[in-house]
Amino acid sequence: MQAKQPAEQNDAILTDPRWQALCTRHPNADYAFFYAVVTTGVFCRPSCRARRPRPENVRFFSTVREAEAAGFRACKRCRPKEPSVGAKNAAMIADICRLIEQAENTPSLTALAERAGLSRFHFHRLFKAVTGVTPAEYAAARRGARVRSALRQSATVTEAIYGAGFSTSGRFYEQADAMLGMQPAVFRAGGAREEIAVASGNSSLGKVLVAQTSRGVCAILLGDAEEPLMQDLRQRFPQATLRPASADEQKIVGRAIRRVETPEAAIDLPLDIQGTLFQKRVWKALQKIRPGTTATYAEIAAAVEMPQAARAVAGACAANKIAVAIPCHRVVGKNGKLSGYRWGIARKQALLARESGARRPKGGPARTRPTAKG
Questions:
Q1: Is residue 90 domain-resident?
Q2: Which range, of 12-26, 163-177, 245-259, 352-366, averages the lowest pLDDT?
Q3: Which residue among the candidates 75, 218, 317, 328 is catalytic per the annotation?
Q4: Catalytic residue among 44, 75, 78, 218, which?
Q5: Is the pTM value of this prediction over 0.90?
Q6: Lowest-confidence pick of 95-109, 200-214, 264-278, 342-356
Q7: Which of 368, 331, 369, 329 is nearest to 349 (CA)?
């Protein structure tokens, strides 16, 4: 076979997706391939910090063995024959995760950092970069998963307590409500005895249905009529017992409606936020967007330190059950235009117009830098 000419070789490299990974020094590519430079006789990882080679001098290999068989030697800078820094960090964090999962009491940040051989700050930042959550959030999520699994599989709550790794029932009940969002026996029964008080009212945006547990408002739904909103609520809480709100509970409904009418106002509402760990992180970021401003899905993803998760952020916004109080209406498309809203684009536009103090063009609200990290 005739050897490729330099121009052909250059074009072949530039159109190879591995070239872009090399140019960006993407650490995830370290697990996929190696590259060699014919002028130096050295092969490297894609993340190597060495000066970028000319494309016509680059050769790609799938394994270290292939590169060595072609006559190239390992770079002394990135040491491609040794585990990468990313692989070492991933292995170290996996060891920490196992330690957290096996411990009855969550180890302190200092103890975990000492186990990793890092400072508290560096360890905390690295753990979040690898897992997407903090050590405390990871511990809470894993402990909650163990408790839920034990309650489903055990014959009694007492059996579940010890099955989940708790040495005493007192310690379990101290944490149960935060982990489950309800009493253990209620959870074990599928939430069948969880009571949700329901009331509705009228607003300028239509019907407002407010649902609340003993811990706070668990849903604020917007719509044109009460019955479709009740059906939506039943689907969201299929095992709960729904009942009319008492006179005292009706007061919360009034506050929720005032929040809808004046979304920019600081009207305090006790909330019972139920969702996955990721959803709760997104919803917390949404609550930090200031009235009158907006953020894109990508900006929220960056705010929760998961920049590749813009689509998942959109899913979390769609799953939000507490309209206005968790202001998913302040999230817009990357071009600044209004995107989807569970309760209708017209309501989203009206809420944003009220917050900004002026009507906006049909294209969407004014854009400002988000304060989700705030």
A1: yes
A2: 163-177
A3: 328
A4: 44
A5: no
A6: 264-278
A7: 329
